[in-house]
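Researcher: Let's continue the batch. This sequence belongs to Recombinase, and it's 450 residues. Same format as the previous ones, please.
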Amino acid sequence: MKDLSRFGRNYIEAGKYIEQIFPFLGVRFISINDNIDTAKENGYTNSMIVPFKNLLNDAYSRDISIKVRSQLEMRQKRGDFVGAFPVYGYIRDEENKHKLKIDETAAEIVRNIFAMRMDGYNNLYIADYLNRLGVPSPMEYKTLKEEGFFTSFKLNPKAKWSPMAVDRILKNELYTGNMIQGKETTLNYKTKKRMGKSKKDWIRVENTHDAIIPKEDFAIAQQMMLNDTRTSPQRDSLYLLSGMLRCGGCGSGMVRKIVKARGTTYTYYICAKNKEDKKECSSHRIREDAVLEAVSVLLQKHKAIFNQLNGESIAWKYASNELEIQKISEQISCKKEELQKYQALKNYIYEDYKDGTLTKTEYQNMKAYYEKICTETEQCMHCLKLEKENLENENFKKKSYRIEAQARDFSVELRRSALVLMIEKIIVLDGKKIKMVLRYQDEFFINSEG
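Model: Same format as before. Here are the structure tokens for Recombinase:
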């Protein structure tokens, strides 16, 4: 070795190797700058100088670790991004590598994920939907964007969207423009095992970069995930009122029940505690259609008051039909280029096989791999073309996740995203009355009939 510090900075382990393991194995150890050679009698291996130097090297390593930790913490508190790779939806700013800016391609996917979650779709459905359209997962997208990216966690040749990946995006506050860092740490400089830190110890700096999701909408999404009940096995999305109804007597959630009588199906909600034990609370039973009718009336009045106060209509934002078609057309073009690339690679490996560069087994394995990717890409193109046809032929308009309100007739159609963005909770009182608490306005009392 050049010197003892190059061999190791843990004085216990270094001393153990030099004084015990190497002599036992018959290994000769030489440190040039320290003038140590275990083959010579005056090699200083038995003197105090070796453990003393190892101890100094260990202390130097600890000092460097403290300085590095302190510098990183200072940058984090300043709002600088110190991670290895930006989170999905952002890229590094070319002018300042410690600042983030929006990657519009990935950011649009993030917005769609929040939009679908606010519409009541569960994480599994969202992940399957993105996989059907061939949208690259965060890991796959990072591989495409960052040539130096490598991870040992990738189990399949092509990473897919998973419910956990969707959940991580929905819970990441960084999309609101706040920098959240310092979630993990190591016990000390001698171990690389990472351990999570308490949430109160995270380093949080607000408004350090442009937001993809408004803070208000992010907060609503978090509340939705806490309140939402499980999705019915027969449905991909939640019911309109799932997680929104609260018992006015005990504050518990309301349970959805379906009853069939004389060929007619009735849907109603009942207090969860009353369902378990009728002595704890009264039923507070109320029909679903009565609540939805009251909600429609309330939202119509709410819109009218807004229009009267502001003197103008507050618009509901709809994603343009043409814009959606254009985006899907761009995705189809990208998939077409991807298909051509893998088809060309399949031809190249055949030429390598003919030249003898690849063995028959290697050629067959690589051919099967590229054929599988080509098949998946063609399936994605097919799904994208169907999506495009639906937009063109049925004049389908996909509503964006942000609701700012214009002339939507709530009495005709109710969307879950409209409910959760405008109504905080619905309290079911005795006498078939409900009390609706709006997020940004005074409370309204509406009596429901039936």
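Researcher: Any comment?
Model: Residues 239-317+403-447 form one domain.
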